[in-house]
Specification:
alpha+beta, 3-stranded antiparallel β-sheet, 12 helices, 38% helix
Amino acid sequence: MSIWSRLWNGSQSQPQPRAATQPAGGGVIITTPKQLEDAIAGALQSASGVTVNATTAMRSAAVYGSVRIISGAVATIPLHVKRRVSDREREDMSDHPLWKILRRKPNRWQTPSQFRKMLQAHLLLRGNAYALIVTSRRNVIELIPMHPDRVRCDQESDLSLVYTYTRRDGREIRLRQEEVFHLVGLTLDGVHGVSPITYARESIGLSLAMENHGATMFRNGARVGSVLKHPGQLGPEGLAFLKSSLDDYRSGGTSEGKDLILEEGMSMEQIGMTSEDAQFIESRQFSRSDIAMFFGVPPSMLGDNTGSDSNWGTGLEQKSLGFVTYTLEDHLTTWEETINRDLVTEDDIYARFNRAALVKGDIKARWEAYVRALQWGVLSPNDVRALEDENPRDGGDVYYDPPNTAGASGGNTGGQNDPSQTA
């Protein structure tokens, strides 16, 4: 029986357990006391009283923003399959079977960016990401994502890994290590990744609690923005009429900015922002920066421009460079090394992200880098044209001598001395 049949179809002759209802976002079937203990531990309430797990955490704007930014970056950077020709030479392997999986069609329904974005989100929220490796004649033909909540990873006595996948009908399927593509985040035991949600539980719980508090406050109008003064005393009928009028005035915010007519000599006194209000706003900003720290995202990328990310640099370029160096590089390396371990069988084949694509949005920096690469003989004009997805031109495969090179013969410049005009 094929892997696909074992995992999704099963045997027709074997009785199937009763199907259990599961949420659309995943979930697990609890059949043992240990699974029940793990499920309860994973849904513990934070000190703020809010239950924090991988699903509820995404309701926090800071968590959602961090996951979206990192997953989107990993999904959009071009991923190449290359062959190591020699110590100094490399070549693209667009005819390799793995190239189609990573660049065109990882499975029957997902695009490469969807696949990478999904697994990266699993990695950020749960510390692990899994995909079933479907092979034919020793070549990978599909990568089928598996929800981390349904996968259990165990290390055997011989140090090999064994994976147990729980199907929707409750059946458990055992998978060998070579059948699973396993991305691991920060790990403390070398096998299982830990999620930022686990250690940021209190910060995320505080953020969710403040969101709920703010929504309730605005829904009920609990904050007193003004005081109505009456020279005498209102009777029950007058009080009920005034309350009804104010509720109608404030309902839905449709009367915002309009004048309010007061009767019986009443006057209104406006009240400014209280210290509690100011502290509430400040706490929300602190919570957002705290969550950004757990995910390694500059707070300014999440909309916090209060100057709390000065350690990342003062300019947008420096902040972006810090994000790429200290956060994104970690995730890109994890993907590259996992692909090389789980999907590549040849010693001279490897996967590599094109980091140069990170400056695609900055045309000035991109072309300045091209000019310097041309001047120093790192790239040829046709190399630059290839990076810009343009066709090569005649005579464009020349590499210029670096400037001020002692004893340069000029033989490989082709008589062209202005590389900035040749690309």
